[in-house]
Amino acid sequence: MTRDDLADTLEEIALLLELKGENPFKIRAYRSGAETVRQFSGDIVSLARENELKGIKGIGDALQQKLNELASTGKLAFHENLRAEFPESLFDLFKIPGLGPKKIKALYESLEVDSVSRLKEVAESGEMAKLSGFGAKTAEKILEAIAFRESNADRFRLGDVASVVSFILEDLKSHPECLRAETAGSYRRAKETVHDVDFLIASSKPELIIEHFVSLESVQKVIAQGPTKASVYLEDGLQCDLRVVSNEEYVCALAYFTGSKEHNVVMRGRALERGYTLNEYRLGIKEGAEKEAPPVFETEAQLYEFLGLEYIPPELRENTGEVEAAEEGALPRLIEVENLRGTFHNHTIASDGKNTLEEMADAAVELGLQYLGIADHSKSSFQANGLDADRLREQLREVKALNQKYADEGTKFRLLAGNEVDILKDGSLDFDDEMLGELDYVVASVHNAMTLSEKDMTERIIKAVSHPAVTMLGHLTGRLLLRREPYAVNVPAIIDACADTGTIIELNANPWRLDMDWRWWKLATEKGVKCAINPDAHSIAHLDYLWFGVRLARKGWLTRENVINTLDLAEIETFLKLDRIS
Ligand code: DGT
Ligand code: CA
Ligand code: ZN
């Protein structure tokens, strides 16, 4: 039982009660209980198991008892009985975006929709459009969502798999028969979503490693098992493949299974031109070529060097110019997580975050950052409890007081007072110039009216980034990976506008977003646009998203110089034209 298991169960109970038409207060209690569990800063699972939830705001007696049962036994009779009242296929409907509990309830009651296939049927037949509260447009949207879901059904977000992957990797590395181990495939290349996760191990006892791998606790089902390779499903359906090779084969195998396929094709071509063959196990001599036997490579760098190339970091191996650059010794020196000195886009309890200013600041100090930008939502984001000018000014005073405190105690750290200001439908900003002028910096983001035409959306954003108060553009396309498509927008035109106006573009490091997409950063840097890697943290735990941000920044060929939050505090103060705090 994890924290998410507890929260997901409460959320599902809320949905099912809603389908049954139960009392709204009861439903709300489960829903807000789920949220409390998700955001609680202590070890909520242990507290629930020990029945020590008393006094936690938002978790009443009934919920305490249910969480205790769930955490200590792994299941909850109340939940199971509730589920049994509905067909199993109904639960797939909950995963279709745009289909909230109210709509599911209406469809279920009037059209007996209890599965995705039935949903598709009534959307296509026109029956759905006739229901009150629905229409042709809704039906069309739902069909799009079903198609999107089908095409993404077998992919996972990098951020959702990262912790289990590093857990398995560490476990494999600690096996006594493991000589070397690494992830490979799209995970190692830091793709924003992965189909499966590949692991590679060097060992002289493959059968022991394989046996160990298939019996890992997180493995739910063994798909295939042979003497040197195995494939398994983890609990959430993530497929993991393991290959065991000899220590001599390890480097060629690692390069091959890291890929990408396109990168491999070019590498193999280079080997052939030089009279060698390259496959998943070794570099050999091409038939008929008069060559000395190639060495056994200790590192991937040696393999690349042998083929006349600089070492190419895994993130770049997509055949988008990395081999040509490596040949000329012109690869960029990619940014590393240690280069970050601060970050800009973070929320607190003032809007929809879960921690206070001070908690966020202390967590940033703990991470070794020199500055943390607070960018809570502005008033038009009322669903996120956005701040009006009065509340924002109050927050500015709090920031000032806290900064004084850090200065007095001699901590080299500063909160930056910003705001994530909504870009309104017409491209104007959610605060007047006077209010904007009082801020240290401004992140401007689109949060509503996402269905504008590409032309209108592009003009809207260009107008916003052209406002002199705007420091950076937040999550450029609004995409939610595997959930919501980017809105229609002309990215190169936005990049040009940012280049003209000196506006920074955010790399939103939230694993659901990773937006702006890595594929655009090369163009942005060519035009001289800087990047800000921002976790968009809504709690102290989310500050760790910086790690994903750096992985994707590397994938976008970004260097330390391209990323604004590698500047130290004094440099940022100069850049933002702020007075020093004495
Ligand atoms: P994924 O799993 O779809 O997110 O993406 P990858 O890149 O991890 O693909 P996967 O797991 O099928 O294969 C891992 C690596 O193995 C891939 O990046 C390159 C290599 N590989 C697999 N199949 C081929 C192939 O047919 N030709 C070549 N040259 N390499 C391959
Ligand atoms: Ca893979
Ligand atoms: Zn936002």
Whole-number total of structural domains: 4
Considering the protein shown, what is the CATH homologous superfamily of the largest domain?
Metal-dependent hydrolases
Give the structural class. Answer: alpha/beta
The CATH architecture of the largest domain can be given as Alpha-Beta Barrel
Shape: globular
Distance N to C terminus: 49 Å
Helix content: 40-55%
Topology of this protein?
Elements: H1 3-19, H2 24-39, H3 44-49, H4 61-73, H5 77-84, H6 101-111, H7 116-125, H8 127-130, H9 136-152, E1 156-157, H10 158-173, E2 180-184, H11 185-188, E3 193-194, E4 196-202, H12 206-214, E5 219-225, E6 229-234, E7 239-245, H13 250-258, H14 261-273, E8 276-278, E9 283-285, H15 300-306, H16 322-327, E10 342-343, H17 357-366, E11 371-374, H18 389-408, E12 414-417, E13 420-422, H19 433-437, E14 443-445, H20 454-465, E15 472-473, H21 491-501, E16 504-508, H22 521-526, E17 531-534, H23 546-555, H24 569-575
Parallel strand pairs: 4-7, 10-11, 11-12, 13-14, 14-15, 15-16, 16-17
Antiparallel strand pairs: 1-3, 2-4, 5-6, 6-7, 8-9
Helix pairs in contact: 1-2, 1-6, 7-9, 20-21
Zinc ion (ZN) binds at residues 420, 445, 447, 474-475.
